[in-house]
Amino acid sequence: MPLVIAKTVLPDASKFYLAVGRIFGIGRAQGLAIAEEVGISKEARVADLKAHHVQQVVALINERYKVGDELKRSIRDDIVRLIEAKTFRGRRHSLGLPVRGQKTSSNAQTARKFKRHQLYDVK
């Protein structure tokens, strides 16, 4: 039976630290750090984990990391805050254009294409 952490299914055949890296908000490096802290081998597969290791990992992730839907909600709230404050970055987000100073004359075709759609519901 596949293991589910933070609404993410971790495949049994993959190595644990790589599988934990699939969780939104945790990458490979953090997955390796979690595995080392809990005492799971780098070569251990998800199917080989014992129940107490799984409980330790879930407790550690819930305690230290903002992952999954909680992280997505936080990111969306930050963007909405920028839009409501009418900052330059907020305007770029609401227009669907690049936010971090990239040029738009030759690049950002995809961003300009998606500009037609309403991205954030702010009044």
Description:
With 123 residues, this protein is mainly alpha-helical. The protein is built from 6 helices and 2 strands, in the order ββαααααα. The protein has a two-stranded antiparallel ribbon. A hairpin with a 2-residue loop joins strand 1 and strand 2. Helix 4 crosses helix 5. The protein is elongated. The N and C termini lie far apart (46 Å). The mean pLDDT is 88.
List keywords for this structure.
elongated, 123 residues
Fold topology:
Blueprint: E1 3-5, E2 8-10, H1 16-20, H2 28-38, H3 51-64, H4 68-84, H5 88-95, H6 109-113
Antiparallel strand pairs: 1-2
Helix pairs in contact: 4-5
Task: Describe the structure concisely.
Helices cover 49% and strands 5% of the residues.
* Count of DSSP-assigned helices: 6
Unreliable residue stretches: none
Would you count the extended β strands for me? 2
Major sheet, described briefly?
2 strands, antiparallel
Kindly report the average pLDDT value.
88
* Secondary-structure element series: EEHHHHHH
Terminal CA distance reads 46 Å
Coarse morphology: elongated
State the strand order across the main sheet.
Answer: 1-2
Binned, the helix content reads 40-55%
Rg for CA atoms: 19 Å
Secondary-structure class: mainly alpha
Strand share of the residues?
A: under 5%
